[in-house]
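Whether sequence alone determines local backbone shape is best considered at the level of individual chains. Part of our work consisted of pairing the sequence of a single chain with a tokenised description of its backbone. This step matters because it turns folding into a mapping between discrete strings. For completeness, the protein is quoted in full, as a sequence line and a line of structure tokens:

_____
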Amino acid sequence: MPEVNNGPGAPTERPATPNQYRTILADPPWKTNQTGRLGAIRHYPLMSLNQICALRVDRLATDDAHLWLWVTNSNFFEGIAVMEAWGFAYRSCLTWIKPRFGLGNYLRNQTEHLLFGIRGRAPIQFRSQGTWFYAPVQEHSHKPEEQYAIVERCSPGPYLELFARRPRPGWDVWGNEVSCDVAL
């Protein structure tokens, strides 16, 4: 490991730094607002809001970075709290319109949202992106492949996907269903 000379005295080792990313995409396993036995609890372990907020995502982001954070209609405000805990400021929302009814205690959900936040000075690369897109539904919690084209068009790399379910070329991943490229 390279040495750093801090002036008088013995040189010290430079601490290892993790990979840093200009764009992070995350789909947390939200425990908030889970009711009954038909939701996410049947498919994977869930995390509380406090557990998600406590992840040190801030260490993985560059000083000027983008965060794309998946939320449902019932945990929109928790998503903003997570953004803030991770060191990002909410800026906008991209809505995925699904072609079929979903679950819901009050209204039948046909949308999910990608909250967009920034850290530092991180301008968007493509200023003509609309605030919604239409894409098919796949198996439980599988987000549409269209998300990657949108994120890559709007945000600079390097890219990291948190809570990933499968690897993607050009992206690093972290999650309990993939071989991880980073430690959290």
